[in-house]
Structures are given as structure tokens and as C-alpha cells.
Fold these 2 entries.
Entry 1:
Amino acid sequence: MQPALAVQPDEVMKNPAQEARARELSRELRCMVCQNQSIDDSEAPLARDLRLLVRERIAAGDSDAQVIDFLVARYGEYVLLKPRFEGQTLLLWLLTPLALGLGAFGLWWQHRRRARIAARDAAAPELTPEEEARLAALIARPASDQAP
Amino acid sequence: MIAEAGHYALVLALALALIQSTVPMIGARLRDPALMTLARSTALAQLAFVGISFMALVALHVMSDFSVANVYENSHSLKPLIYKITGVWGNHEGSMLLWVSILALFGGLVAVFGNNLPLSLRANALGVQGWVSTAFYLFILLTSNPFLRLANPPLEGRDLNPVLQDPGLALHPPMLYLGYVGFSISFSFAIAALIEGRIDAAWARWVRPWTLMAWMFLTLGIAMGSYWAYYELGWGGWWFWDPVENASLMPWLAGTALLHSAVVMEKRNALKVWTVLLAILTFSLSLLGTFLVRSGVLTSVHAFATDPTRGVFILLILCVFIGGSLTLYAWRASSLKQGGLFAPISREGALVLNNLLLTTACATVFIGTLYPLGLEVLTGERISVGAPFFNLTFAPLFVPLLLALPFGPLLAWKRGDLAGAAQRLYAAGIAALVAVAVLWAWTRGGAALAPLAIGLAVFVIIGALTDIAERSMLFRMPLPIALRRARGLPRASWGTMFAHLGVGVALIGIVCETTWNSELISTLKPGDVAKVAGYELKLDAISQRQGPNYGEMLAHFTVSRDGRPIGAMTPSKRSFATRGMSTTEAALMSRGVSQLYVSLGDTAASGAIAVRIYHKPMVLLIWFGPLLMAFGGLLSLSDRRLRVGAPKPAKAARGLQPAE
């Protein structure tokens, strides 16, 4: 745990647009010797080196993707805080939408099943003519008869 | 002597837990009331003994008895008294003791306030509680005994990690544990219901207050931790998607879902099987959090000094409890009757949507936290999953959730009227659109998403107020009548309003802080002036000072706006000699709900000092939101129907009541 004062004044680039890009990129890169910090947040010497490296590449005219590729080639996928979408991270990216889809499908299926059961229960057999007549008589009877 | 007494009390608590975990459950099987009531007395006695044990450790820390290893490693005779006390749980062994103390506290509370529970349900629930305590007493006694003595007592201790020497430590872990461990009650009740094979609306009513209480504490605990990180770590971040933060967020998300599904169960007797599963999952995630923090499988700012045997032991506990409870669930859940049909557009339907989205969000956090571990074990490849991943996957789930949120309370049970609800939300919708338009015009060319997100927050806030206005018929009845109606509304309705309001408020804070935060990184010499967001900060002087167990360098700033001085800020750096570590103490100045934030870096040979200055607009709302949520929880908790308790047969002779 280190008192953080990550980006040092002397690192800041002259061109504000380039500096903004550097900061944006720094937030997506991991300081590999730290505990789950981006190089933007960390004040470890390695993070400083990486920040300077990013700025160097930007100053040399690299695009964001080129900077990322450069760092991955040098340090491996571990340096990316947002893993790329590829074979080994397929499930990482797809499990969330899959869970949502499966959940929604399960709910729809459950609803349909229960609605069907309810519909079957509701479809009671037809009344015979005698029962119809008794029902009509019951309904027609004045309410006062039923008063306690 | 005190250490041995504390140790012995813990062993006695284990013995009591063993009795509590077996005898009452056998009693419930045999329908023997005498055996079943034993749960009550053992739970209370256990609380007493754990209490003694915990107080013993506190006493050892306060007296700086360095013959005890735990005190030697984490204390120092010069440490201020408050940190001698809070230092008790600022380490692995002590925090485990706090964990089991809180577990025993909840067991005791169920024993005291559970008089209106059916005898067998109480016996079974406390029995399950006994299993959990047994497992953790064994863990402490076998792998993490805080009372171990040192053969050659040193004269001075090694001091507590300086970052933890902060008032935050007094509140954050106890609150968090009250939340984590509080969910053990819902878990125990869920398992008890599965064992009994019977569950009804009354069950939901008994479980709901416990869940609500745990959820409140967890909400406050997480918010506290976030604020602590914000001011202590010195770069103004308040959420890092750190694995251990995720470990606390997962039970919170599952617990929030549980809170909502329990409402459906209580009111409509539906979603029973799902509610039971959520209760199991929520506590399982709390256990997982405990495992992740203490096993050393994760690297994190929170990870305790680790030891593989502990990791294996907790993994074992985890497998037994999660595996066992899910097996029991798979076996018994079909015996729980489903009830209460409802149309998709209804209050139940809205709460189901809430559950779907919250559990998916929880799953996202789960996957993101554990995927790198799994991948490394399986293929040896190391990848990182950090904030950018979570922002991309987690945030989109909250958009539909927040859009649907105001509709929920306005829909009727069973079959709702979406058009009607939409009509009543006109005002909220218009307010949201106005907010978006105004912000767009004002920040033209700026971030495009931020005004939309603020609009969403406004929609949630006005929507929450609309619900109360509708219920009290404000604007449709004369004001005095509406006010009387508002007073007469159930407290739970007010609780809902405040909690939902809190969500909107927190969202405003989050969006403003991340979008319109201004930052200045600079090297200043005394006399220099820095300008940030319309404020001028003049560095007047740099001074040194000696604290009780540290040396401190302070930088004195005068802050002015438009040439008028408005106050002083003194950020500092403390260096602790014993551990050779230093901490930054950021200076904060609140202006309304926005804050100025100054933290110090290294000093150059020339006498200049590196400084980071932020202006963070609306930042305090991030924590006011959770406070409002917890306040809503408190209101709900005080609702009449929970205080009165569940209905029960009027003339049941207590004690002789058959265990049905």
C-alpha cells in the first residue's frame, strides 16, 4: 500500500490532446507489480516507466491500438485491465449476456407453462341443463333470503 | 491469564455451538419441545462466551500485552487508545473473532426476539446457525488463534499498518460484518424451511426484517469503505473494482434481489423456491468473500497476510456449506408449493425483472472476479480484469433496471396497467427530458452519455416521489387531507421511496464525479498559487510536526475564490517509523456537496512539493445515496407489520404446541 501520487508533474505532455489520450490509455493498463491498480493510479517506479513509455509511443505518432499492441507484445495480455475478446476470454465476455438471455428465457418458459396449467384448470366441464337451471334459480333468489 | 481465559471461553463457545447444532434439530425431528427450546439457551450462552473471548482480546490490546503474538504483531504502546481498540479487528485473527462474535450476536437476537416463531422453525434455524458457528470456531481455534503466547515477550510491538490507523477502521469492518454475517440468518431460515419442507408467507415475514437489517449494514459498510478509500489512498478514487470490493458487492447485489423477492413472497405467496435459493446464494457469496480475502488467492489492497492452511480450511467450509445447502435445495425445493399466479405486467413482474437484472449484475461481478483465477489454474495464462471491463459489462445492466424502477411501485399486484403507470410518470419523464436538454446545452461538445445518465437519475428520483404523491393523493385532494394520508401511509412505502431516491442521488454523484472532475498535478514552492475549477490555492508554508507514533509533514494552503479567501486546507504526509511506511492524509473542503481535494507527493531537493489537486463536483452524493438507502431500510424495518410480527393462532398453548 503506497501513498499514491501517480502521474508526476514532469511526466505531463505538452500537447493536451495527446496527454488526454495518454491518461485514457493509462487507465486501461495494469501496473504489473501492484495490487490491481492501473498505471494511472499507481506510483510504483514500474508504473512510471510504463506511463513514460506510453507517452513516448504517442509522441512518436502511434495510434491507441498500436500503443496497446506494443505493450502487449512486450508484457503479455496481463497488462490489459480490459481483456481482449479472443479465444481464452470468450466466456468472460459472453457469460453475462448468456446469463441474462437464459434467465429471460427461463422466465418466459415458466410463465407460459404456468399459464397453460392455469388455463387447463380454468376450462371446467360444461354444466348440464339441470345445473344451469339450479344456478339461475340461486342467482335469482332475493338477497334477503341469505341474510343470517 | 486473560489470554488463556479468552482462549478457554472460545473453546466453551465451540462446545455450546456443537450442542446447538445437534440437539435442537433432533428435538425438532422428535417433536420434543424441551430439546427444541435448548436452542434458545445455547444461543444465548454462546453469545456470552464469545463476548468474554472478544473482550479478553480487546483488553490484551488495550494493555499492550506483547507476550501475545497477535498484540505484538499489530500494536504499539504509543498507539492512540482508539486504534488499540480498533486494531483488534485490523488483522486476520482478530477480525475472525469479530466475525464469530457478530454471528453469535445474531443467534442471540433470534433467540431473544424469536418467541413468536414456530418452535420447530426456531430450533432448526438456530441449529443451522450452530453449524456455521461450529465451522468458524474450529477455523479460529485450529488455524488462527488470536491468543497464542510468545515464548520470549518483546518489549515493543510492531504497530498496526498505518493505513488502518484511521477512524474508518472503527466502523467499516464491523458494519460490513454485520451485513455479511446478518445474511446467515436468512440462510439459516432458508435451510430450516427446506428441512421442514414447509414455507409460507409468514416465513417471509419473519425473514424479511433480518434480511433488511443485514442489507442496511452492508450498504453502510460498503459506502463507509468507499469513502475511507477515497480520502485515505490519496488519488480520489472511490471504487476500484478491486476483487475484495467485488467480494462485498456480490452479497449486496444478491441481498438486494432477496429483499425484493421476499416482498413478493410475503404479499403474494409466490416466488418461494426462488427466494429460498437467493437466501442461500447471498450467504454463500458472503462466505466466498471471506474465503477470497483470507486465502491469498487474490492480490488486493485488503488481503490479509496469508497462510495456505487457512485457505484450504476456509475452502473446505465453503464447499461443505455451499455444496450441502445447494444439494439440500435440489432435493427438497420441489416439495415447496408454488402459489400466486401473476401477469408479466404487474408488481410481481416488475420485481422479477429487478431480480433478473440484479442477479445478472451479480453474476457479472462473479465472473469478472474469478475468471482470471480459473484461467490461470487451467491454462497458466495470466490476464487482468479491471475497472474498464466492469464499466463496460456492469453498467449497461443498470440502465434497464433504473428505467423500470419507478414503474414497479406504481403497478398493481397480480395484473398491472402499464399505460396507467406511464401516465402517472409523465411528470418524472418530462423532468428527466428537461434535465437532459439543459445539461446538453450547458456542456455542449462535452461527454454525450453523462446528460442522459443524469436524466435517468432524475427520472428515478421524481419517480420515487411520484409514488408517495400518488398514494397520498397530493394535488388531487386538499393539502391537509393529503398530508394526513401521507402520514398514514405504511412506513414501508416511505422506506421504498427513500431507498429508491438514494439510488438516483448516488447515480448523480457518480456521473458528475467521473465526468466533470477537474484535476491539477503540479510542483509547488511556498508562495506558489494553483488554480483549479475557479478556486485558487496558495501554498503558504510547509511545516513539520510530531504525532504520537509518527512524524508528519504538513502543507498549508489558503483557498480563495474570486479573490476572496474562503478557508484553509492542510494536507499532510505521515511517516511511521516502526513499519517504515508513510501515508498521505488528503485535505478535503466541502462546498455544498462538491469537494476540493488536495494530496501531497514527494518533496524535491529544491524544497518544492508535488501536489495533486482535484475539484470533484457533487461527489458527496455518491455516499448520501447509500445513506438514504439505509435510512429507507430503517423505515421499512420499523413498519408496523414487522414490529407486530406474523399472525399466529390466538390460543396456542406455548411449550406444548406440536411441532408441525
Entry 2:
Amino acid sequence: MINPNVKLKENIFTSPDMAATRDGFGTALLELGETNPNVVVLCADLAESTRTLPFKEKYPERYIELGVAEQNLATVASGLANYGKIPFITSYATFSPGRNNEQIRTTISLNNVPVKIAGAHAGLSVGPDGATHQALEDIALMRAQPNMTVLYPCDSEEARKVTLAAAAHAGPVYIRLAREKTPVMTTAETPFVIGKSNVVWESEHKPEVVIFATGTLLYQALMAAKELEFKIPTVVINISSIKPLDRETILAAVKDAGAVVTVEEHQMAGGMGSAIAELLAAAYPVPQEFVAVHDRFGQSGTAPELYKEYGLDTPHIVEAITKVKARKEGSKGV
Amino acid sequence: MLTDENLKNLELKAEAIRETIIEMLVAAGSGHTAGPMGMADIFAALYFDILNHDPKNPEWEERDRLILSNGHIVPVRYAAMAHAGYFPVEECLTLRKFGSRLQGHPERERLPGLETTSGPLGSGLGQAAGIAYGARMDGKKFHVYCAMSDGEHDAGNIWESAMFIGANKLSNLTGIIDRNNIQINGLTEDVMPLESLRNKYEAFGWHVLECDGNNIAAFVDMVGEAKAITERPTVIIAHTVPGKGIKEIEYDYHWHGTPPNAEQAKKWLQELRTLKGKIQSEHE
């Protein structure tokens, strides 16, 4: 059942409200415009789709247009942060942190200045645009850089909180955002703290599998847990803070359940599942199944079509849970 | 205008910087020779005449910012900073060594006063633009200088930044291009022609000045003129001689990324000391 302590919405499984994480980001920018005079927003010719347009209209003197120039987007932001501003840079994740990765590495991460990188339209769910625009390696790029914090909100409300937390954080931050409207699960009362993860679902009985999900696929993970409610008891944890990871919460859950499924809309290589596996290999190795994209590029299609084709939808998560439970029992000689 | 006494003093500083560069490169056993030697006069002028700065308080908010985009010539900056009093000159001999604050390419967080981290080419001008833009938003009066190589103008990031700075008329920023005509693979005009650099910058909305970058008086005059232009950003194309001060390496692109050995260093230091600060300017 849903963990009552995290104050999720009550209509999640009946008729969930729908909103895009990029909308929560845009809302937070407006709040920051009001509360923090040092916040500036940099845009690379994508004001409407990255949801910076309302900020531009309300705070034109703090909105900076770069044109289609993502390398300059990163380097100018580095200078602004170096001077004392809190710049948010916005583009599609394939271009930023994709195209400008070296500029981010040298002038933001190594330079250690507080630039906030919002990578929009990340993942397969951007859909019809096709593989060129479906960022599936951005988490790997960003979490491999020292000093960088990596956040991936599960819905628009958490995206709002993530954006506010990023502005308050002293160092560089990557925020991963999606284009499509997805179910809103969290409320204003749901906690979000960088480096902390929330248990969102707990079966009544002792869990046999723990599911770590990041981003909007948390919803599909919850659906899988619900479907298996009376067959395989599980715990579902929202890993919206991919770096730093909440070691304490993760290890406690893994020790309790003894088997892991990770769920993410990203390449398996270097993603959230990799981060969990790195932690567990050293601290508490258990069987793990990776619901992720397995070394393929995306293609045009609707989000549901692509989730099915690439093995990210609820039936595939159910399959992974069932499989990892069997692996765990097999390893015990049952 | 500089007085004769001021000029003489700057020339002696440039010589001291050159000597320190040679000493630090030979101690390091690796690093770049041609660029730092060619830029010694400009860095002497910057640190001992042009920059409004305080070596004892490198984080002073109102300081002028000097951004070094082509981080590989950082020995000239380390030497100038040491002689200006940011840290002891002896520390220069730790260049490129384990545990040193003087990394092979400059890192902002390791040594106060460096302003930025650089080495990968083409990204300094954008950072300078960000600082200048932020400063203008807040009505700050300090000036931003960005030293660049000519070779790094092959990089697209430079032109993205040049376009942005021109569009935003950031006149509180002055670019300084070390036009020494060499890069690793050879002469710039053979590797990837840059000319006409002047026309390119003008087309991007900049005011362009040119001078002999090894003539301290000429360079100081150009910076004065650049700061007087408030309608547009200015770039100074400073024509320098790579390896300037050591006859056997001047103009030779093979010295881009090679340090002297001990024997060469000894000979070069002797050669420099006989000049008593008076290197031959192209304008003389």
C-alpha cells in the first residue's frame, strides 16, 4: 500500500491528474524570480518548450537568450555563476548536457560553480521526434562528473521542489525533465531533500523485492507493485536524488528484501541502476534486474509504444520483479 | 601614457617573468614554452600597470577580471602573479608537480587569483562574457579581460561567444588575442586559416585594434583606447613573436609544447640577462 507518510495524492490509481515535469520546473522558476534576485535564466532558442517563457515575460532583465549555441550556453553560465549569479541553463538534454558536455565538465564541474542545468525532453517519451532527440545517456554523463548533483523528479510537483532545492544548493546541479504529461503522484506535503529517497509503497508483508525507480516511470513501478500486491510483497522507493544517493535508506531496504529491480528511462550503462549496483556490489550484493534501455537508440513512436518496445512498461516491470525473486530463491538453493 | 621610468620598470618585470618561465619549465620537465615567452610583455603590462587588483586580497569584489582562455600558457600567468606578490616566486618551481597549486593547466579552486579553470580551448571567452554580463546587470565598474590564443579561434565556442558579446554590446570586456601565428601542427594559416581575423570580429560587432604585442608601451596604449570605447566590445589583436626573447626559438612552432632542457635553460637565462629588459620590439 501507499506509504501514508509521504502524503501522495489519493487519486493516483483512479484518475490521476496529469502534468509534465517541465511545467513544474517553469512554475518553480517563477517562484525563484520572486524570491531570489540572483537567479537568472539562460535559454537556447527553446523558451516555450523548456517552459522558461513565463520567466522571460515576468523578469526580462534576468532572462538571457543565447540562440542555438549550447556550448556558449554552458560557458556564459559558468561566468555568471563565477561572478555571483545562480544561472539556470535550459535546452533539450541531447544538446545540454549532450553537445556541451566538455564545457560543463571543465567550466562548471571542475571549476565548481553553481550552474543549474535543466535537460528537457529527456528519455524515450519525447516520442515522435525520434532517436536524435531522445536523451538516454545524460544521467551517465552527469553523474560521472565530480561536484555534480543529479536530480530526476518523478512528477511536476516534485520537479518544482527539485528546482527550488537546486537553486538553494551551493554547487552545480543537473535536473532531468520530460516533455509528456504524466501522472502527478506527489503533493506539496511530500518531502524532497537532495540526497534523500522516499519509500512510496510498502506491502503489508515482509518485502521480497525492492524496486528503485527514478523519474516519471515511478508511476509504472507503482502500478507493477500494486498488480503484485497479493502475490509478491514489494517496497517501491523513489530515487529522485541519483547523486548523491540515499545510502542509508537504500541499504536498509535491500537488506530487508534481498533482491532489487531498478527502473529508469535511460541506458542501463551508467544510469541510476548502475549507481545502485555500484553501491550494492561494495556494500551488500544481491540479485538485481535492470528495467532500462539496453544499448539501443530510440525511434519515433508514442510513449506507450516505445515503453513497450524497449521493455519499460508495467508488464516488463512485473516480469523483472518475478524474475529477480526467482533468482534470489535460486541462489539460496530453494 | 607611460613615463620612461614606468616603461623601464615594466620591461624589467617582463624579463623577470621570462626568467621565471624558463626556470619553472626546466624544473617541470614538460609544458609550453613559445606561448608564455611571447606573452611575457603583455602579462607584465597587465599585472604591473593595467589591472586593478590586490594580490593580498585575490577575492576582492571590485577587482578587474583576467580570464585566461588558452590555459596552456599559464606559466606566464603564474610567473606574473608570483612577481606581483600573489605567492612566493619559489613556488613557481612546483609547476606540474604532485600536490602543487600550480597545475599543468590552471584550476580556479587550487590557486586564488586564477579566476577560471582552463585548458580545453575555446571556452574562456564565454566565461568572460558571463562575468561581464553579470557585472553590467549589477552596475559594477570593474573591467573583464580575456586572453586568447589565435589557434583556439578554430573552435566554434569562441565564435558563439563572440556573437553573443557583440549582440549584447559588452563594452566592459576586452579580448586580447595572442596572434603569434603558430599552433601545434604548424602555422595557423596552414592548419586552418584565420584571416581576416579583423574582418571576422568586425562582422560580429566588435571594435578591433591591433598592436605589436611585444611592445609594452604600444599595448598599454591600446588597452587605454579599448576602454574608451563604450559602444561595443573591443578585441586587441596583439601580434607577438612566439618564444620571444630567445633568438633560437623565436617563430618556431616546434616550441609550442616543448620545455627547454637544463643546458638550453642555462644558455637562455644568460641570453635574457644580457638584454637587461630591452628585448627588440618589431616597431623599433
